[in-house]
Amino acid sequence: MLKNVRRVDQQEEADLFYIPFFTTISFFLLEKQQCKALYREALKWVTDQPAWKRSEGRDHILPVHHPWSFKSVRRFMKKAIWLLPDMDSTGNWYKPGEVWLEKDLILPYVANVEVCDAICLSTTESKRDTLLFFRGRLKRNAGGKIRSKLVAELNGAKGVVIEEGTSGEGGKEAAQKGMRRSIFCLNPAGDTPSSARLFDAIVSGCIPVIVSDGLELPFEGILDYPKIALFVSSSDAIQPGWLLTCLKSVSRGNIKKMRANLAKYSRHFLYSSPAQPLGPEDLAWRMDMEMLDKRKFSTSLTTRSLWDSTCRSSFYNRKEIMTYAPFYWSCKRYGIRCFIPAVLSLTLSLHMVHESKGIECRYVKYSCHVG
């Protein structure tokens, strides 16, 4: 895809318009009123352009990679394609109608630690004597309240290391060392569902254990995350002894496979200059072009293999899913909903089984045919 992306000088020749205005940097570096003035200036310049007026911004790409950035004016640019860290399903950061999966694109955070390459993975394999590692803020707001509950459940347990995070080079070095000595890395929700810690774990060869019920991930629908991460519901994770029992039940063979997959998948999360094939820049352009053609990727949260109370995958017979139409499927925990626009014929059959807490799931079949 990178070879097919070409910069042009005339608006009339462009299919997509990237707005190189880094909304997050200005938010952190400027005083509040200075930042708002800069946002208004940028907004006026962009919305005065003929290309914006022609499409109302639907073919424009805007980086909004922090929930606070561009907040004062983003309602005027909500039709553009936003580059986001997550969709924030908690509703704390974005107003209704501002972000949604069929319009916007989730990008990975830049990893804060150095990549553990093939040689590093080989040398650290025998040194991974920690079962579960977490280093970060132990208390957060909103959905991040799960952290304090997990700390109460896991702190002091054998094979578990939980540390309060610190900033600076010292904090970075401690996080890198801890992840490279661990088999699993805990990734709970913070103030938002996502955090850079997930991508630090991936490039460190530490299998992520994701406890963030509302998390949407970068390039989901292209990448098969259950090959590299474990997804655990918040309600199960805080049950006494449940999480550690399940982690200990993962066989050495499966751990080895997942770690090998982490080594393969790391390239998808590593930004570089020049950009590399199948790197995050390449995958972002692929998805941007699909959005432009209105053949949008969408994958529901529940296509993941969520462990149930028996420490088994909750959804059996899970098929590989890649679609060019928005669709959602889930059991009663999330509420079943299906939306398929009349752009193609699609028959989708899913077999869903969930054994914990008496949640009812059933065989569901949606068929849409365009005449």
Description:
The chain folds into three domains: 2-106, no CATH class; 118-269, Glycogen Phosphorylase B (Rossmann fold); 298-371, no CATH class. The strands form three sheets. A five-stranded parallel sheet has the order 6-5-7-8-9, with helices on both faces. A four-stranded parallel sheet has the order 1-2-3-4, with helices on one face. The chain has a two-stranded antiparallel sheet with strand order 10-11. It has helices spanning 23-29, 32-47, 50-55, 118-124, 146-154, 168-180, 197-204, 234-237, 242-249, 252-265, 280-292, and strands at residues 17-18, 60-63, 81-84, 105-106, 130-136, 160-164, 182-188, 207-211, 230-231, 346-350, 364-368. It contains eleven helices and eleven strands. By secondary structure, the chain is an alpha/beta fold. Helix 7 links the parallel strand 7 (182-188) and strand 8. The longest helix is centred in the N-terminal third of the chain and has 16 residues, at 32-47. Helix 1 (23-29) packs antiparallel against helix 2 (32-47).
